[in-house]
């Protein structure tokens, strides 16, 4: 009678917990509806006078104040549609300033019911608020260790994958927008480290030789080329050449790097070259310009000290020269050189970080006057490539390819992956050598309990590696639609555990995962071990009751599966019958009905081992459906097991052994206690009986006496 009263009390408490969770008005079923972006744009830009239509190859809204652009807004789904935990992307409105500063990030729509069930949406919005004031050129990362050049954003406990996907979507979309608007430049693909000029490489040469091998380059323009450059402008016919003048030379400029010995010494002579090199400071270089026709000097350097007709281009950077960088060349000594109207040496200062091993360009600006003040410019460029024999070029640096989100997550979780792999290999070795280990009961019990502690502390609380029936439904839904492994690879620990669960189900059935790798199952078992150690009375249900209660978890599984076919979000809400999220993902930091429910299940476990696993767990029910395909049956039994011996059945603390002695592998948790008894000749009745027979046979033997 006392047992039946305890059973009814337990069932009553479980029902009350269900009512708290599924009827509580504070946790009504809810899916985030899409929001209109325009009110949010007005909220971010309260002084805006006009919001343009979303348009362009990179779709954006332009926001203006009194006809002046004050910012841009865009949706991440238009530019970086990345699936989140639910398999659907989180669509966000992002606003940036014309300078590339984040002004706001707002969640427009998401399908993350796993968040809504345990984390208020306000935390998701607070995560997005962290982008305010950051720059699109910043390298942003959610959580992780500090690294140089990376700005870290606080994550969201229980929704790590979701916020990592949000971060990638925001930064990728913002980068595309900023590049399309010219706010930031595309990153350089290959880097040439700073090269050095060979100081001792010199060969006597004439003008024609240096021009012929490219040591000296030439930019030549005729008047027709210049006229064509101004076609369609307001100055098209100003200073236009007559048909007879079209082929006349407009400008002819020779240019070279004068601090290269074979160039500078041949052009300037020994004494002038030595003087030049003595004036150059570390990191400085000299460029020689020799010109006829249109002056490359102009008059700007006279008025303002700037040579406004020429500049040097390298690696996307441009720099001009001032009068302090200029030295006039009175004569060149190389044989065969033509006469020039202008001859100059320009010093490239160290702050420009000019690299003699990287190609550069001389840009000549040609101006035509439009009235007394205004003028229009066009430019012409000449390329220069330093010959290999003149410079020492270090090997090119190829930047590391940009990691995908999946690769980034796995790299971040590298330590967890390695430790988990070691744990799984250890478990695999335990299973393969179980017949040896069970002969050492004390060691095996201590080892198992230590393994369960690691499962709870590391896999459960530290890594959030608790599998859920929601994972099963997500996989099935993805399999029936556009399946992609990326969704499942976003959480390495969960992915590896699912792989381990699948492999062990194929080899040994559900038992291995539920008995060794499930954090909540391990927590229950450890609590019950302590309870038994302090002699707390245990409730053992009659076999007839116990056997029928098994069916509850299969009914729960069928109900959740039916809901998932209609709405995965709804199924995830009712999947809260699993206390996993409360216990491990949120660490009891959520609404009190969920906490009471989880604590209630753990309290029941003090009196009855693994109550939730045995009767309520839909995940265990789902895993047990694969039991029929398991390949191995390594739990040994004897003909006497069950008839007449009941030892193992009575000792099985989760009652997975039928009265007839057979082990129900759909309910077994592979604790190996029955195998310890199986090989213990002091505990197993059939072994004890065999031992007595052997002893009796020895006693009845008549010793043979030799007759001499």
TrEMBL record:
Annotated FMN-binding domain residues: 84-177
Cell location: Cell membrane
TM ranges: 417-438, 450-476, 488-508, 551-571, 592-608
Keywords of this entry: Cell membrane, Membrane, Transmembrane, Transmembrane helix
Record bears the keyword Transmembrane: yes
Keyword Transferase: no
Source species, domain of life: Bacteria
Pfam families: Fer4_5 (PF12801), FMN_bind (PF04205)
Name the UniProt record assigns to this protein: 4Fe-4S binding protein
Phylogenetic lineage: Bacteria, Pseudomonadati, Pseudomonadota, Gammaproteobacteria, Alteromonadales
